Amino acid sequence: MLRRDVFQAIADPTRRAIINMISKQSLNLNAVAENFDISRPAISKHIKILTECGLIIIKQQGRERYCEAQLHKLNEVSEWIEQYREFWTKKLDALENFLAKGPSKISKRQPSKKIKRK
To answer: Which CATH number do you get for residue 59?
Structure first.
């Protein structure tokens, strides 16, 4: 079986929309499918991927199957992004400090002397 991760889950806009919907309330599969202009089998495939990634769980209630969000898996994404946020914050702070020193600290180039030819 193909190992799926949370990054694969959020790579698709339909899956992001499903996560957003289910994060607000548990929904049965039909209620999820009604919100999209794609086939029910396509929605089922998206739900399967989200389940394999650990972002949703399916709970059986009577004859209905309900999708519940398990958003703690999104912490993986947050942690991954945070390392780049820290990197760019440091770079931008260094640039800000450099620019704050002003033009007086930046070396000025002396014009070259022209040689007169006779």
So the answer is: 1.10.10.10
